[in-house]
Here is the input.
Amino acid sequence: VVLTGSNDCLWKTWGFPDGTVFQMGKGHRDVLSGCCFQPSGTRLVTSSRDTTVRIWELSRSECILILRGHSRHVQGCCWHSPWDLVASASMDCTSKIWDVSSERCQHTLRGHKKSVNSVEFLPFSNTVLTSSADKTWSLWDIRTVSRL
Here is the structure.
């Protein structure tokens, strides 16, 4: 299965290699900039230029949570394994760590001078990697919210 997001504000899951669309979700009001499966495969996270991050229940193709807090386009998102955390990267020069269980922003990572273009958790760690239009990347310890 392949997961995509696009300019039509939809996410889709596709069969590979035949290209059959299995599922589709609609809810964002602007371009989808990122999407990622939860490690267990039962949910997904999407990010959009509409400044939101959304959590979707795959079994129903339904948005179950909208995370708001970025002031500009959200460029990307990822899911932490094994914790129920999501990270987002934004043009507002920040990344956020969201606790899905409590439905709240746990940490805001500040330090880049321009748009944060991507974010990724290092597997099975407390470390997140961000990259920015300021031509830098940073490693962050999400327990202390400090750069490594």
User: Anything to note?
Assistant: The first strand starts at residue 2 and ends at 5. The radius of gyration is 15 Å. The mean pLDDT is 95. The chain has one domain: 2-147.
